[in-house]
Amino acid sequence: MTAAAVSSDLTMTKEPVSKTFVFYIVPEFTMLAFTSAIEALRLANAVMGEEVYRWRIVSVDGDPVRSSCGLSVSPDRSVAAERSSTRAERPNMIVVCTGWHVERTVDKSVAGWLRQSRNFGISVAGICTGAHILANAGMLAGSRCTIHWENLPIFRETFPSVIVSGGLIESDDDIHTCVGGTASFDMMLHFIEKDCGRRVALAICEQAIVDRIREPFERQPSPLRTLGSVNPLVLSAVQFMEDSIADQTDIAAVARHIKLSRRQMERLFARELATSPSRYLLELRLDRARLMLLQSSMAIIDVAVACGFVSGSHFAKCYKASHGVSPQQMRTQRPRSAYVPSLGRAGSRASLGRMV
């Protein structure tokens, strides 16, 4: 069914809506997450045959902002101008759009604006790594949120009072977060469905060639999600490893968790993943350490402890053997992604289907 057909055929059971979104962008924001959110709103207007949703773009100073892919976006106004909006001009929701190096984009004036907006009853959302900005503004203490998987380890260390999940979308007390990418499209579809009904949301999917609306509780990609069709006992073991990385969990504890002997578990990993449980756990720890080194200024010994290593020297030795450089050298080099360099490593978990 075409958008025009849907528009002419719709018999709304809900009251007509008219909402305004403000998209706040920062340097190195992720274009995919940003445009996915806006395109959902644009398609809603096309399907409905009227301007149900409006939006404007804001940056700290009102100047153009360069995205992570190199394209720049010119905002409509600055945060200061937005903050001085009249009651009639206030948006229904502010969407914080971030990306790589989000910790560099923290701004006190923005934090004050976001808190003030919540006091006015304005909904707030963070996409990709936007939860970092919201947490830094003190808006997520004791609340549930989600964030892109690359940022999960350092986010949990930096904001221990926040309840962070691995799901695609989280909503708590009218503060919404999603992991970015195409999940931004899903989050907007849920808002649109609530406003305009299921038929409108499904018609948008048809227009965008999207096969379904993903549920908020669906988990984002992770080592566990990208292993493919392996034995459920292996999946259970990997989940246990991921959940207890900081606890210096040993392989015997993993074997007890899945109710196998250590020897049985080693044979199972060799058959299913072509590696040993010990090697798999070590690479999990090294992967998490790499994320934390790249995304924070934490002392290297603190990174080692947070990733379950018994000492700084043991961590440094393992890290250099795996990555070819010391933890300090890795931090100095600052590669763009935490996983791209490992794609070519023979025997690495990347060869087992790890997403990048």
From TrEMBL:
* PROSITE patterns in alphabetical order: HTH_ARAC_FAMILY_1 (PS00041), HTH_ARAC_FAMILY_2 (PS01124)
Protein name per its UniProtKB record: Transcriptional regulator GlxA family with amidase domain
Q: Mind telling me which CDD domains this protein's record contains? A: GATase1_AraC_ArgR_like (cd03136)
Highest taxon listed in the record's lineage: Bacteria
Q: Which InterPro entries does the record associate with it?
A: Class_I_gatase-like (IPR029062), DJ-1/PfpI (IPR002818), Homeodomain-like_sf (IPR009057), HTH_AraC (IPR018060), HTH_AraC-typ_CS (IPR018062), INH-QAR (IPR052158)
* HTH araC/xylS-type domain: residues covered: 235-333
From the UniProt entry, list the residue stretches annotated as the region Disordered.
330-356
Q: Does the keyword Transcription regulation apply?
A: yes
Keywords, sorted A to Z: DNA-binding, Transcription, Transcription regulation
Q: Which PANTHER family match?
A: ARAC-FAMILY TRANSCRIPTIONAL REGULATOR, HTH-TYPE TRANSCRIPTIONAL REGULATOR RV1931C
Q: Which organism is it from?
A: Mesorhizobium shonense
Signal peptide interval: none
